[in-house]
Write a structure and sequence with these properties.
This is Serine protease K12H4.7. The protein is an alpha/beta fold. The chain has 16 helices and 12 strands. The radius of gyration is 22 Å and the shape is globular.
C-alpha cells in the first residue's frame, strides 16, 4: 500500500517536509535520496497505457512517465524497478540507495515508474469523480504489468529476473504486483507497506504516543496536557479567539461546527504524526528528540503555548477553515491545488480508509478527531455517493481481492520499523519461509530503502544486509 508552499490550507511544511508518503493530508511521497554526483545515464521516457485496462471497448490511451538507468546493466542482468506511489518521481533512487547498490552488485538495469494521476502521468482531462474512477490499484497494477511485459519484449530482456521495490503505499503495490502477476515479477521488497485496508486507523496515534514515550514520559505528559487545553479552549466562551492568537490562525475556529473543530485538531495532531513517522537524525538529534525538547521546555510557557510554538513558530497565519479547505480541493482542474491531496484522498475514500482518528484511550491527543470527519471529507470532495457505507464496501473488497494481512505469496520481504505508525497495518511476522518479515527497532517509515549511514541504528544496518542477501539469492537462483 502516498500523501505535498505545499498545503495551502494545512501548512505544516517546516515540521513535515521531505517525508515519505501516506501521512494523512501531508503525503509527500518518497523523499529522494541525495547523491554526491548526478548520473549521466538516467533518461526520462514514456509508455502508452490504456485509460481502462479492463474495458476492451475503451480505446483511450495516455502517456505514463518512467525513468531509466542502464549504467550497470549487462546482458541478461536483472531488472530492478522502484515503484512510484502518490508522488512525482525524480532521479534520487536511480543514483543512490538500497536498490542502486543492488544494481551495482548484480549488473542490473533500473527503472522508476510513475503512478497514474501523479506527477506528469495524467490519464484524464481533469480530476472529476468520473475521471478519477480510473484511479485504482487494479489499474495501477495493470499499468506496471504492461510496462514490464513491454520493456522485456522490446529490449530483449526475456531472460532477466524482475525485482520490484516499493515504500509506503507503493510497498503495498509491490506486494500486490507479485501476488497478481507472479509470472512477470520474481520478487518484491515491501517497505512500510500498509497492506490491510482499514477505515478507523486509530492505531496510528497509539504508535505515535508510544514512540514519544520511548523518548520520555514527561514529553507524553506535556503533549497530553496541551491537547486537553486545546479541547477546553474550544469549549470556552472566548477560547476560540485565544486559540487564534496562540496559533496565529487565519480564522477564528467555529466552535459550533464539528468539522471546523476537528479540522483544527487534525492540523495539530498531524504535526506529531509527521515528526514520528519521518523520524531521523538531523543536526545531531532525532526529530522526536527535537519535538520533545520543545514540548518540555518551560521557557516557552504553558503546554498549550509550547504546542503553539511547535506547530506554528515562524509561519504566516495558519489556514484552518474547513469550508475554505473543501472549496480548494473540490476543484477538478489539474494544477488547481498545491499538491496531490485530491487524488490521494480519492484513493482512501474508495479503497483503503487509513483514517487516523483519536478513537483510542491509548493516545494523548484528546478525543476530538473522529471517523465522521474524514468520511465527511469524502462526500464534500466527491459527492454524496462517497459515504461511509460505500467506504466500508470498498475496504472489504480491497482486503478480499488482495488478501489483507495474509496474502498467499512467495518471495516478498516485508520491512517495518517500530517507530513508524504505519507498521500496525503491515506484516510483522513471516508469512512463510520465502516471505519474511523484518521488524527494525528504532527505525521509522521506509528508512531501509536508503543507503547505509553513520546515524543509522544497528538494527537498520543489519536489516539492509539481510535484504541484500535475500534479493541476491533471488537473482542468482
Amino acid at each position: 500500500m502516498v500523501y505535498l508552499s505545499f498545503l495551502l490550507l494545512l501548512c505544516l511544511t517546516c515540521r513535515l517536509a521531505h517525508g515519505v508518503g501516506l501521512h494523512g493530508f501531508h503525503s509527500h511521497g518518497l523523499e529522494e535520496p541525495r547523491s554526491l554526483r548526478q548520473s549521466k545515464n538516467i533518461i526520462e521516457a514514456w509508455i502508452q497505457q490504456p485509460v481502462d485496462h479492463f474495458n476492451p471497448r475503451d480505446n483511450r490511451t495516455w502517456s505514463m512517465r518512467y525513468l531509466e538507468n542502464s549504467r550497470f546493466f549487462k546482458r541478461d542482468g536483472p531488472i530492478l524497478i522502484m515503484i512510484g506511489g502518490e508522488w512525482a518521481i525524480s532521479r534520487g533512487f536511480l543514483e543512490t540507495g538500497l536498490m542502486y547498490g543492488l544494481a551495482s552488485t548484480h549488473n542490473a538495469i533500473m527503472y522508476y515508474t510513475e503512478h497514474r494521476y501523479y506527477g506528469k502521468s495524467k490519464p484524464t482531462k481533469d480530476t472529476s469523480p468520473a475521471s478519477l474512477q480510473y484511479l485504482s490499484v487494479d489499474q495501477a497494477l495493470a499499468d506496471l504489468a504492461r510496462f514490464i511485459e513491454t520493456r522485456k519484449r522490446r529490449e530483449g530482456f526475456e531472460n532477466s529476473v524482475v525485482i520490484v521495490f516499493g515504500g509506503s503505499y507503493a510497498g503495498s503495490v509491490a506486494t500486490w504486483l507479485r501476488l497478481k502477476y507472479p509470472h512477470l515479477v520474481q520478487g518484491a521488497l515491501a517497505s512500510s507497506a500498509p497492506i490491510l485496508a482499514k477505515a478507523d486507523f486509530y492505531e496510528y496515534y497509539e504508535v505515535v504516543t508510544e514512540s514519544l514515550r520511548r523518548h520520555s514520559e514527561k514529553c507524553v505528559d506535556e503533549v497530553k496536557a496541551a491537547f486537553k487545553a486545546v479541547e477546553e479552549s474550544l469549549a470556552a466562551e472566548d477560547g476560540p479567539q485565544k486559540l487564534q492568537q496562540y496559533f496565529n490562525l487565519c480564522d477564528v475556529p467555529d466552535a459550533n461546527s464539528p468539522n471546523d473543530r476537528e479540522h483544527l485538531m487534525n492540523i495539530l495532531v498531524e504535526a506529531f504524526g509527521g515528526t514520528v513517522q519521518y523520524d531521523k537524525v538531523e543536526n545531531g538529534r532525532t526529530k522526536i528528540a527535537a519535538c520533545c525538547e520543545t514540548m518540555t521546555n518551560a521557557r516557552f510557557g504553558t503546554p498549550l503555548q509550547r504546542l503553539a510554538h511547535f506547530v506554528s513558530s515562524g509561519k504566516k497565519c495558519l489556514e484552518n477553515n474547513y469550508e475554505k479547505f473543501v472549496k480548494l480541493y473540490r476543484n477538478e482542474t489539474w494544477g488547481a491545488q498545491p499538491d496531490i491531496m485530491r487524488q490521494w484522498f480519492y484513493q482512501t475514500c474508495t479503497e483503503y480508509g487509513y483514517y487516523q482518528t483519536t478513537n483510542s484511550n491509548k493516545t494523548i491527543f484528546g478525543s476530538s478527531l473522529s471517523l465522521r470527519y474524514f468520511t465527511d471529507i469524502c462526500r464534500d470532495f466527491y459527492g454524496e455517493y462517497y459515504n461511509n457505507e460505500f467506504l466500508n464496501v470498498r475496504i472489504k473488497r480491497t482486503n478480499v481481492m488482495y488478501g489483507g494481512l495474509r496474502p498467499d505469496l512467495r518471495n516478498v520481504i516485508f520491512t517495518n520499523g517500530n517507530v513508524d505508525p504505519w507498521h500496525a497495518l503491515s506484516v510483522l511476522q513471516d508469512l512463510n519461509t520465502l516471505s519474511p518479515a523484518i521488524f527494525i527497532n528504532g527505525s521509522s517509515h521506509c528508512r531501509d530503502l536508503y543507503s547505509d549511514s553513520d546515524t543509522d541504528v544497528q538494527d537498520l544496518t543489519q536489516a539492509r544486509a539481510k535484504v541484500r542477501k535475500i534479493i541476491g539469492s533471488w537473482i542468482s537462483s
